[in-house]
Amino acid sequence: MPCCSYFFLKGEPKKRKILLVAVLRLGNLVALLPWGIITFSETGGFVPLSSQGPLSVVVGVIWLSGPGTKEVKEILSDDVMDLIERVKTEDLSSFFKLSRFFGQELINRPVPLLKLIGLKLVRSWYGTSTRWYEEREILAVQILYLIAGFLGLIIYVIKTAKTKTRDMIFLLGPVFYFWMMAFFSVSIMRYMIPAMGLIIIFSAITVSILIDKIKFSLK
After folding, report:
1. How deeply is 127 buried, as exposed, middle or buried, from its count of CB atoms within 10 A (0-12, 13-18, 19+)?
2. Where are the domains of the chain?
């Protein structure tokens, strides 16, 4: 993302572009610095943030059927549970095997796979690491932010689509990045926290419009 941002700084001098991207990259490094210091002091070397590769996708799928409250049986249908069981028994240790397996599932049994995809996409916005524990309450709060945020986004796009398309892509890039990260691994809300900051910004547009309409109606 930091390197891609270089191409969205149209009109800026080249040196300033490099400086801004470097500052953004430095911010990422500062955020990771505590992890690097702790792991180096404990192990004597640097530990990658993630080394699971395709196994992270497998873990994210299997994790859905782990221990949780009774709501797990209400959300996971039998065909999705069967799909998860097949994931458990297959050798999906490479991207080729993973792609082939899900490709065959899409051809032969598309419905459970599409259900699984939809569930993981949605759960990324409210799921917890304890699985379904008070998640309905979290969803009730999140849905307010998400509805307001996406309405504000639509309003912003309508008003600025012709002049600020590049800015929109730059803003939405991190949202989709973290959403896809949560989707492909373990679909829990804490991975979406960086993206929620941007969603809340757009929700402010909706709230501002509602307040203006209320003020106008009271006059």
Report:
1. buried
2. 4-43, 55-218
Dihedral over Cα of 31, 33, 34, 39: its sign: positive
Q: What is the pTM of this model?
A: 0.71
DSSP structural state of residue 47: P
Phi, psi of 12 (to 5 degrees): -85, 145
Q: How far apart are CA 56 and CA 216, in angstroms?
A: 52
Assigned token pair, 178: 């973290």
- Say if residues 202 and 33 touch (Cβ distance below 8 Å): no
What b/e string do you get for 12-49 counting C-beta neighbours within 10 Å, with b at 16 or more?
A: eeeeebeeebeeeeeeeeeeeeeeeeeeeeeeeeeeee
Q: Which residue has the tokens 């916005």?
A: 125
**Spatial separation of the C-alpha atoms in residues 177 and 60, rounded to whole Å:** 17
Q: How far apart are CA 142 and CA 103, in angstroms?
A: 33
Give pLDDT tens digits for 88-115. Answer: 998 888 889 989 999 999 999 999 999 9
Q: Whose CA is closest to 172, among 183, 191, 156?
A: 156
In whole angstroms, what is the distance from residue 181 CA to residue 188 CA?
Answer: 10
> What is the identity of the amino acid at 145?
Y
Tokens of 132: 């379904």
